[in-house]
Amino acid sequence: MIILAVVVIIAIIISFFTRKAIVRRKLKKAPLRSLADFKHGETAKIVGRVEFVDEPLEAPLSGRECAWYCVRIMQSHGKSSSTLIEAEDKCRFVLRDGDKVAYINDNTIKKYIEMDKRYHSGTFEDAGPRLEAYLKKHDKKSQGFLGLNKSLHYSEGVLEKGEAVAVLGKGEWRDAESLGLPREYGVVLSITTSENNPVYLSDDPDTVTVHGKSS
Predict the structure, then answer these.
(1) Closest-CA residue to 202 (of 128, 111, 118)
(2) pLDDT digits (tens, 9 = 90+) for 28-69
(3) Which range of residues forms the domain containing residue 110?
(4) pLDDT digit string, tens, across residues 156-168
(5) Number of domain units in the chain
(6) CB neighbours of 43 closer than 8 A, spacing ≥ 6?
(7) How many CA atoms lie within 13 Å of 110's alpha carbon, on the beta-carbon side?
(8) Which of 129, 122, 120, 119 is nearest to 143 (CA)?
(9) How far apart are the first and last CA of the chain?
(10) CA–CA gap between residue 119 and residue 1 (Å, rounded)
(11) Using an 8 Å Cβ cutoff, are 176 and 188 in contact?
């Protein structure tokens, strides 16, 4: 019983300090501001909807248009597993809230993007063409010794156009052109790190909820 209790305690501690838990906790506790009410120089959370600035990316596993994608491919080895590929990419985007927009003007971002697409290939299931092409791009194969399929688990998360996203950081109102953004955006809330804290970002439903309703 003592050993079981220790295992449970360790599991709880580990889950408390995962990237997902840390980002969600920061965003859920942060003061929420609409862009219309955000004061120059304050640090708070905003929730806005993704709007592409650059040409959108194509998510490698699902083919979805997106501003940001994260991909993780794991290989099972009996009772254990290892990471085969972990990759991400993003293009420029803003977050719109009414007639105002915010722009993350910083690369120090701690994020949690929901991995909402999952695939599998293994003994009785071949990897599809898109999965196979992505593996090949990274010099990996879905098959191993004697041409047998490896047991692979694929997951992908994206920020799509119109998707609600929560961001926490320091905001300063700046002219769009000074940020390298199109002039038509006018004055934009530039979000950066604050007092050595990173910018926090997530599309987790619990972080984008405004007054009990999803944004």
Answers:
(1) 111
(2) 999 999 999 999 999 999 999 999 999 999 999 999 999 999
(3) 2-214
(4) 999 999 999 999 9
(5) 1
(6) 168, 169, 170, 171, 194, 195
(7) 19
(8) 122
(9) 45
(10) 37
(11) yes
